[in-house]
Amino acid sequence: MKIEQIYTGCIAHAAYYVENKGEAAIFDPLREVQPYIDRAKKDNAKIKYVFETHFHADFVSGHLDLAQKEGAKIVYGPTAKPGFDALVAEDNQLFKVGDYTIRVLHTPGHTLESTTYLLIDENGKEHGIISGDTLFIGDVGRPDLAQHVIADLTQDKLARMLFHSLRNKIMPLSDDLIVYPNHGAGSACGKMMSKETTDTLGNQKKTNYALRPDMTEDEFVNELLNGLTTPPVYFPKNVLMNIQGYESLDTIMHRGKIALSLDDFEKLSANKDILLLDTRRAEDFAKGFIPNSLNIGLESNFAMWVGELIDNIKQKILLITYPGKVEESIIRLSRVGYDYAIGYLEGGFDAWLNANKKIELINRITAQELSHEIQNNNKLLIDVRKKSEFNAEHVIDAINIPLNEISKRLNEFPKDKPFVLNCAGGYRSIIAASILKQNGFSNFSDVVGGFSEIKITSIPTTEFVCPSTLL
């Protein structure tokens, strides 16, 4: 069967392309749809359907643009109530893509409308399942997201639905089916996903904790809900965009790709309602940046941190990027619904620097220098990693203020004495540094290389040992 996984690592997302006899279907597309259109053109195929497994929370889907550009029909599973023209399928409804058959399996649990698509080849043999967020490799979808949009859909209710969906719809299927999930490791839609992005259903029945055949419903619910972290704040906003609709990416690109002269950029940046977003690498940002700009580098989990740190999804944004990175910056903003980039500084930071405009710097020290300062000055270290990372291992006497909590905990940063920031490798701590600079802090340094460098110095660390590791 001709199926291709199109994986985007920076947001741990998998879309799928299925084609037979000149007809194609796209499952769970990203916002930028041209790669899917180009893929179909390569096969001389027409995109007939856009299948959505559910209303996504962690990204804005490309279903509307694909429908508009290609005339494709958008398909959702039972109970979906989209605010645009779409086909809401019935459970077990069949669709044809060439000689292939797509069977709808309603599998509520992650969300109420969550649906798995069973792929059947031209000979009638069941090939695999596109499982969305119902079944991951090593995990299942978290059931606590829908309640942020519909209060009555509690995590307990959805967890119980998911238990029955897995046992009544998924587990009876053949072991040789291939599981094609919507996400892999790194996604916040589950808690313990594998780095593998496909597997056989039979192997998942053996290894996935949620598919143990002897689990009771209450045991399943307890294990599923235990250890869930607070979902990213932008998730409900993305859900609503996927339900209600949004502007075309073409419109967003046109609005954002406005090259601004230095004078025009400077005039706009004086408006306190406009955010300056610098997407350069952390190490370059630290060497010099435009005052009051926020650094979120493209080289890592850019979209996730944009969603976590920029409260207003309609925030107007001015971009500072490397040459040739404007379009990528706008696209990656749009993946999580930040559609209001209104231009970029022509020539980037170099244009600002060459004009002798005021710049700011972030002082950075090595792990060896930190070791010396701790030994001699009892310098305060603030670790901006996640609580789970900090609990696993951290410098003795360090304070943990996770990056996504900084804006709400600014009063915990001292203004009367120097302190040092660290994260795992330097990406997050420079984001933190840019936020602190925006808020008037200058009495701090950042550790080059973060905790990965600290660990190989003589700085004492403490490690949290989970009791289960002692068994």
From TrEMBL:
Classify the source by domain of life.
Bacteria
Q: Does the keyword NADP apply?
A: no
In its UniProt entry, what is this protein called? MBL fold metallo-hydrolase
Q: Report keywords, A-Z.
A: Metal-binding
Query: Does Metal-binding show up as a keyword for this record?
Result: yes
Domain Rhodanese, by residue range, is 270-361, 375-463
Name the PANTHER family on file.
Answer: PERSULFIDE DIOXYGENASE ETHE1 (PTHR43084), PERSULFIDE DIOXYGENASE ETHE1, MITOCHONDRIAL (PTHR43084:SF1)
Q: Which InterPro entries match?
A: Metallo-B-lactamas, Mito_Persulfide_Diox, POD-like_MBL-fold, Rhodanese-like_dom, Rhodanese-like_dom_sf, RibonucZ/Hydroxyglut_hydro
